[in-house]
Design brief:
With about 350 residues, this protein is of the alpha+beta class. It is about 35% helix and about 30% strand. The chain has 10 helices and 19 strands. Strand 8 (about 80-85) and strand 9 (about 95-100) form a beta hairpin. The chain is globular, with a radius of gyration of 21 Å.
Length: about 350
Protein backbone atom coordinates (compact mmCIF):
# COMPACT_ATOMS: atom_id res chain seq x y z
CA UNK A 1 0.00 0.00 0.00
CA UNK A 2 1.16 3.52 -0.81
CA UNK A 3 -0.41 6.72 0.54
CA UNK A 4 0.27 9.95 -1.35
CA UNK A 5 -0.34 13.47 -0.07
CA UNK A 6 0.19 16.77 -1.88
CA UNK A 7 0.26 19.65 0.62
CA UNK A 8 -0.92 22.68 -1.37
CA UNK A 9 1.33 21.72 -4.32
CA UNK A 10 4.32 22.69 -2.19
CA UNK A 11 5.36 19.60 -0.20
CA UNK A 12 4.63 16.05 -1.38
CA UNK A 13 4.58 13.07 0.97
CA UNK A 14 4.77 9.38 0.03
CA UNK A 15 4.11 6.70 2.67
CA UNK A 16 4.92 3.10 1.79
CA UNK A 17 3.60 -0.09 3.43
CA UNK A 18 1.87 1.49 6.44
CA UNK A 19 0.00 -0.93 8.74
CA UNK A 20 -3.79 -0.50 8.85
CA UNK A 21 -3.81 1.41 12.14
CA UNK A 22 -1.29 3.96 10.84
CA UNK A 23 -2.99 4.15 7.44
CA UNK A 24 -6.35 4.94 9.04
CA UNK A 25 -4.74 7.48 11.37
CA UNK A 26 -2.88 9.33 8.62
CA UNK A 27 -5.92 9.29 6.35
CA UNK A 28 -7.81 11.13 9.10
CA UNK A 29 -4.98 13.64 9.54
CA UNK A 30 -4.15 14.30 5.89
CA UNK A 31 -7.25 13.20 3.99
CA UNK A 32 -7.83 16.60 2.37
CA UNK A 33 -4.45 16.34 0.62
CA UNK A 34 -4.76 12.73 -0.56
CA UNK A 35 -3.90 12.09 -4.23
CA UNK A 36 -3.63 8.91 -6.28
CA UNK A 37 -0.02 9.43 -7.38
CA UNK A 38 2.98 11.78 -7.18
CA UNK A 39 5.59 12.66 -9.77
CA UNK A 40 8.12 13.04 -6.94
CA UNK A 41 8.18 13.31 -3.17
CA UNK A 42 9.76 15.65 -0.65
CA UNK A 43 9.10 13.37 2.33
CA UNK A 44 9.35 9.59 2.00
CA UNK A 45 8.19 7.41 4.90
CA UNK A 46 8.83 3.68 4.63
CA UNK A 47 7.55 1.07 7.09
CA UNK A 48 9.95 -1.82 7.61
CA UNK A 49 10.24 -4.89 9.84
CA UNK A 50 13.57 -3.96 11.36
CA UNK A 51 15.99 -1.06 11.63
CA UNK A 52 19.56 -1.62 12.75
CA UNK A 53 21.65 1.08 14.38
CA UNK A 54 25.21 0.97 12.97
CA UNK A 55 27.90 0.23 15.56
CA UNK A 56 29.71 3.38 14.48
CA UNK A 57 26.75 5.56 15.53
CA UNK A 58 27.19 8.10 18.32
CA UNK A 59 24.89 7.62 21.30
CA UNK A 60 23.68 11.13 22.12
CA UNK A 61 20.97 10.15 24.63
CA UNK A 62 19.84 6.81 26.02
CA UNK A 63 17.33 6.43 23.14
CA UNK A 64 18.87 8.75 20.53
CA UNK A 65 21.73 8.01 18.12
CA UNK A 66 23.50 9.76 15.27
CA UNK A 67 25.33 8.03 12.42
CA UNK A 68 27.70 10.78 11.28
CA UNK A 69 28.90 8.74 8.30
CA UNK A 70 25.56 8.06 6.58
CA UNK A 71 23.82 11.05 8.20
CA UNK A 72 21.04 9.19 9.98
CA UNK A 73 19.30 9.95 13.26
CA UNK A 74 17.79 7.04 15.24
CA UNK A 75 15.14 7.32 17.93
CA UNK A 76 13.99 4.40 20.06
CA UNK A 77 10.56 4.42 21.70
CA UNK A 78 8.90 1.50 23.51
CA UNK A 79 11.39 -0.91 21.95
CA UNK A 80 10.77 0.28 18.37
CA UNK A 81 12.96 2.43 16.12
CA UNK A 82 12.49 5.27 13.69
CA UNK A 83 15.34 6.57 11.51
CA UNK A 84 15.51 10.01 9.96
CA UNK A 85 17.92 10.56 7.08
CA UNK A 86 19.32 14.11 6.99
CA UNK A 87 21.80 13.53 4.14
CA UNK A 88 19.68 15.58 1.72
CA UNK A 89 17.99 17.77 4.29
CA UNK A 90 19.46 21.01 2.91
CA UNK A 91 18.17 20.05 -0.54
CA UNK A 92 14.61 19.87 0.79
CA UNK A 93 14.29 16.09 0.95
CA UNK A 94 13.57 13.89 3.98
CA UNK A 95 13.62 10.09 4.16
CA UNK A 96 12.18 8.32 7.21
CA UNK A 97 12.13 4.59 8.00
CA UNK A 98 9.77 3.30 10.69
CA UNK A 99 9.57 -0.09 12.36
CA UNK A 100 6.12 -1.64 12.53
CA UNK A 101 4.60 -0.93 15.93
CA UNK A 102 6.19 2.49 16.35
CA UNK A 103 4.00 5.19 17.93
CA UNK A 104 1.68 6.87 15.42
CA UNK A 105 2.07 10.18 17.26
CA UNK A 106 5.84 10.27 16.74
CA UNK A 107 5.23 9.62 13.04
CA UNK A 108 2.81 12.57 12.91
CA UNK A 109 5.34 14.74 14.78
CA UNK A 110 8.05 13.78 12.27
CA UNK A 111 5.78 14.78 9.36
CA UNK A 112 4.72 18.10 10.88
CA UNK A 113 8.20 19.11 11.98
CA UNK A 114 9.48 18.32 8.49
CA UNK A 115 6.63 20.37 7.01
CA UNK A 116 7.57 23.29 9.25
CA UNK A 117 11.03 23.46 7.69
CA UNK A 118 10.17 22.49 4.11
CA UNK A 119 7.23 24.89 3.76
CA UNK A 120 9.57 27.71 4.77
CA UNK A 121 11.39 27.11 1.47
CA UNK A 122 8.10 27.20 -0.44
CA UNK A 123 7.08 30.77 0.43
CA UNK A 124 4.89 29.61 3.30
CA UNK A 125 5.02 30.10 7.04
CA UNK A 126 3.44 27.51 9.32
CA UNK A 127 1.61 29.04 12.29
CA UNK A 128 0.36 27.60 15.57
CA UNK A 129 -3.10 28.97 14.87
CA UNK A 130 -6.55 28.15 13.59
CA UNK A 131 -8.68 29.86 10.99
CA UNK A 132 -12.33 30.15 10.00
CA UNK A 133 -14.36 31.97 7.35
CA UNK A 134 -17.68 33.56 8.32
CA UNK A 135 -19.78 35.61 5.87
CA UNK A 136 -16.78 35.89 3.55
CA UNK A 137 -14.49 37.24 6.30
CA UNK A 138 -11.46 35.11 7.17
CA UNK A 139 -10.09 35.26 10.71
CA UNK A 140 -6.85 33.67 11.90
CA UNK A 141 -6.74 32.94 15.64
CA UNK A 142 -3.45 32.28 17.40
CA UNK A 143 -2.80 31.49 21.05
CA UNK A 144 -0.33 29.68 23.25
CA UNK A 145 -1.09 26.07 24.20
CA UNK A 146 -4.28 25.93 26.24
CA UNK A 147 -5.31 29.40 25.04
CA UNK A 148 -8.81 28.32 23.95
CA UNK A 149 -8.51 28.72 20.18
CA UNK A 150 -9.85 25.21 19.43
CA UNK A 151 -13.03 25.73 21.45
CA UNK A 152 -13.57 29.13 19.84
CA UNK A 153 -13.17 27.66 16.38
CA UNK A 154 -15.47 24.70 17.11
CA UNK A 155 -18.11 27.16 18.34
CA UNK A 156 -17.74 29.17 15.13
CA UNK A 157 -18.03 26.04 12.96
CA UNK A 158 -21.11 24.87 14.89
CA UNK A 159 -22.71 28.19 13.88
CA UNK A 160 -21.95 27.74 10.20
CA UNK A 161 -18.38 29.01 9.76
CA UNK A 162 -16.05 27.40 7.24
CA UNK A 163 -13.04 25.57 8.68
CA UNK A 164 -9.37 25.83 7.67
CA UNK A 165 -7.73 24.37 10.78
CA UNK A 166 -7.76 24.55 14.56
CA UNK A 167 -4.08 24.24 15.49
CA UNK A 168 -1.77 24.47 12.47
CA UNK A 169 -2.22 26.51 9.29
CA UNK A 170 0.02 28.07 6.65
CA UNK A 171 0.15 31.71 5.57
CA UNK A 172 1.80 33.34 2.56
CA UNK A 173 3.37 36.73 1.91
CA UNK A 174 0.34 37.57 -0.26
CA UNK A 175 -1.90 37.55 2.81
CA UNK A 176 -3.41 34.14 2.18
CA UNK A 177 -4.21 31.31 4.57
CA UNK A 178 -3.66 27.75 3.36
CA UNK A 179 -5.66 25.16 5.25
CA UNK A 180 -4.48 22.25 7.39
CA UNK A 181 -7.73 20.61 8.63
CA UNK A 182 -6.10 17.78 10.58
CA UNK A 183 -7.73 15.87 13.44
CA UNK A 184 -8.94 17.85 16.44
CA UNK A 185 -8.10 16.91 20.05
CA UNK A 186 -11.40 16.87 21.92
CA UNK A 187 -10.95 17.21 25.67
CA UNK A 188 -13.32 17.20 28.60
CA UNK A 189 -13.37 21.01 28.81
CA UNK A 190 -14.89 21.11 25.31
CA UNK A 191 -18.18 20.16 27.00
CA UNK A 192 -20.98 19.06 24.67
CA UNK A 193 -18.58 18.66 21.75
CA UNK A 194 -16.52 16.19 23.77
CA UNK A 195 -19.66 14.16 24.50
CA UNK A 196 -20.59 14.09 20.81
CA UNK A 197 -17.02 13.10 19.85
CA UNK A 198 -17.06 10.32 22.48
CA UNK A 199 -20.21 8.76 21.03
CA UNK A 200 -18.93 8.94 17.46
CA UNK A 201 -15.54 7.54 18.46
CA UNK A 202 -17.10 4.66 20.42
CA UNK A 203 -19.38 3.67 17.53
CA UNK A 204 -16.41 3.63 15.13
CA UNK A 205 -14.49 1.04 17.19
CA UNK A 206 -14.71 -2.69 16.61
CA UNK A 207 -14.96 -5.00 19.64
CA UNK A 208 -11.18 -5.51 20.21
CA UNK A 209 -10.55 -1.76 19.96
CA UNK A 210 -13.43 -1.07 22.35
CA UNK A 211 -11.57 -3.15 24.95
CA UNK A 212 -8.32 -1.30 24.15
CA UNK A 213 -10.10 2.01 24.65
CA UNK A 214 -11.63 0.93 27.97
CA UNK A 215 -8.22 -0.15 29.26
CA UNK A 216 -6.20 2.67 27.68
CA UNK A 217 -3.37 4.19 29.71
CA UNK A 218 -5.26 7.45 30.25
CA UNK A 219 -8.37 5.66 31.55
CA UNK A 220 -6.33 3.37 33.82
CA UNK A 221 -4.42 6.36 35.24
CA UNK A 222 -7.73 8.12 35.83
CA UNK A 223 -9.09 5.11 37.77
CA UNK A 224 -5.93 4.77 39.86
CA UNK A 225 -5.89 8.45 40.78
CA UNK A 226 -9.69 8.45 41.25
CA UNK A 227 -9.85 11.38 38.90
CA UNK A 228 -12.86 12.18 36.73
CA UNK A 229 -10.51 13.33 33.95
CA UNK A 230 -11.54 11.81 30.64
CA UNK A 231 -9.04 10.85 27.89
CA UNK A 232 -8.47 12.98 24.81
CA UNK A 233 -10.33 11.93 21.66
CA UNK A 234 -8.75 12.66 18.30
CA UNK A 235 -11.38 13.11 15.61
CA UNK A 236 -11.87 14.93 12.34
CA UNK A 237 -14.23 17.88 12.74
CA UNK A 238 -16.11 16.70 9.65
CA UNK A 239 -17.20 13.63 11.63
CA UNK A 240 -19.21 15.93 13.91
CA UNK A 241 -20.32 18.60 11.45
CA UNK A 242 -21.09 16.56 8.34
CA UNK A 243 -21.98 19.59 6.21
CA UNK A 244 -18.74 21.42 7.06
CA UNK A 245 -17.08 23.39 4.25
CA UNK A 246 -13.28 23.15 4.02
CA UNK A 247 -11.77 25.89 1.82
CA UNK A 248 -8.13 25.34 0.92
CA UNK A 249 -6.89 28.87 0.21
CA UNK A 250 -8.43 32.19 1.26
CA UNK A 251 -7.41 35.82 1.72
CA UNK A 252 -7.08 36.74 5.40
CA UNK A 253 -8.97 39.75 6.75
CA UNK A 254 -8.50 39.56 10.54
CA UNK A 255 -5.86 38.29 12.96
CA UNK A 256 -6.66 37.64 16.62
CA UNK A 257 -3.99 36.62 19.12
CA UNK A 258 -4.49 35.65 22.77
CA UNK A 259 -1.80 37.06 25.05
CA UNK A 260 -2.99 35.54 28.32
CA UNK A 261 0.50 34.37 29.33
CA UNK A 262 2.25 37.72 28.96
CA UNK A 263 2.92 40.09 31.85
CA UNK A 264 0.98 43.28 32.61
CA UNK A 265 3.89 45.32 31.23
CA UNK A 266 3.08 44.10 27.73
CA UNK A 267 -0.56 45.09 27.99
CA UNK A 268 0.22 48.80 27.95
CA UNK A 269 2.02 48.53 24.63
CA UNK A 270 0.43 49.13 21.25
CA UNK A 271 1.44 46.22 19.05
CA UNK A 272 3.03 46.83 15.69
CA UNK A 273 3.58 44.24 12.96
CA UNK A 274 7.04 43.32 14.26
CA UNK A 275 5.58 42.52 17.68
CA UNK A 276 2.85 40.37 16.13
CA UNK A 277 5.50 38.70 13.98
CA UNK A 278 7.74 37.86 16.93
CA UNK A 279 4.83 36.47 18.95
CA UNK A 280 3.65 34.26 16.08
CA UNK A 281 7.16 33.00 15.32
CA UNK A 282 7.98 32.21 18.95
CA UNK A 283 4.61 30.54 19.44
CA UNK A 284 5.24 28.31 16.42
CA UNK A 285 8.83 27.52 17.39
CA UNK A 286 7.70 26.38 20.81
CA UNK A 287 5.02 24.16 19.26
CA UNK A 288 7.61 22.58 16.96
CA UNK A 289 10.41 22.11 19.50
CA UNK A 290 8.52 21.30 22.71
CA UNK A 291 8.57 17.54 22.01
CA UNK A 292 12.17 17.40 20.81
CA UNK A 293 14.14 19.94 22.87
CA UNK A 294 16.44 17.31 24.49
CA UNK A 295 17.27 15.84 21.08
CA UNK A 296 18.06 19.24 19.57
CA UNK A 297 20.34 20.06 22.52
CA UNK A 298 22.10 16.70 22.17
CA UNK A 299 22.69 17.26 18.45
CA UNK A 300 24.10 20.73 19.02
CA UNK A 301 26.42 19.48 21.75
CA UNK A 302 28.01 16.80 19.52
CA UNK A 303 29.78 19.57 17.52
CA UNK A 304 29.43 17.72 14.21
CA UNK A 305 30.28 19.86 11.17
CA UNK A 306 27.32 18.57 9.14
CA UNK A 307 24.91 19.32 11.97
CA UNK A 308 26.36 22.84 12.18
CA UNK A 309 25.65 23.29 8.46
CA UNK A 310 22.06 22.12 8.93
CA UNK A 311 21.56 24.53 11.81
CA UNK A 312 22.84 27.34 9.61
CA UNK A 313 20.44 26.24 6.86
CA UNK A 314 17.52 26.27 9.32
CA UNK A 315 18.60 29.72 10.54
CA UNK A 316 18.38 31.01 6.96
CA UNK A 317 14.90 29.53 6.59
CA UNK A 318 13.88 31.23 9.84
CA UNK A 319 14.93 34.57 8.35
CA UNK A 320 12.86 33.83 5.24
CA UNK A 321 9.90 32.81 7.41
CA UNK A 322 10.09 36.15 9.23
CA UNK A 323 10.11 38.03 5.92
CA UNK A 324 7.05 36.08 4.71
CA UNK A 325 5.19 36.71 7.94
CA UNK A 326 5.88 40.45 7.96
CA UNK A 327 4.54 40.66 4.38
CA UNK A 328 1.49 38.67 5.45
CA UNK A 329 0.84 40.95 8.42
CA UNK A 330 1.14 44.03 6.23
CA UNK A 331 -1.78 42.82 4.12
CA UNK A 332 -4.14 41.91 7.00
CA UNK A 333 -6.84 44.55 7.54
CA UNK A 334 -7.52 44.16 11.27
CA UNK A 335 -5.31 42.83 14.06
CA UNK A 336 -6.34 42.40 17.66
CA UNK A 337 -4.68 41.20 20.88
CA UNK A 338 -6.88 39.54 23.52
CA UNK A 339 -5.79 39.53 27.15
Amino acid sequence: MILNYNIHSRVKIRITNPPNEISNFLEQELNEFSVTSLDKSDIDINFVKEIKIPLSSIKLLKNFYYDNQKKYLFLEHDGKLISYCIDNFCDGYVSINVEYGFSKWFILYAIEKSLYVLMGKKECCMLHAGAIVRDGITTVISALQGGGKTLQIINEVSNGAEFLGDDLIFVTEKGECLSHPRGVNFNQFHGKYYNIASKIHWKSLNLPNKFKWIFSKERVKSLISRSDLKPTIRLSLSNIFTSIHLPKRVKVDNLHVRIHALSDNHKANVWNDLKYCNFLLENMRYEVTSHITPYISALISCNDEYIVNILSYIHDIEAERKRILLCFLGSVSKKLEWY
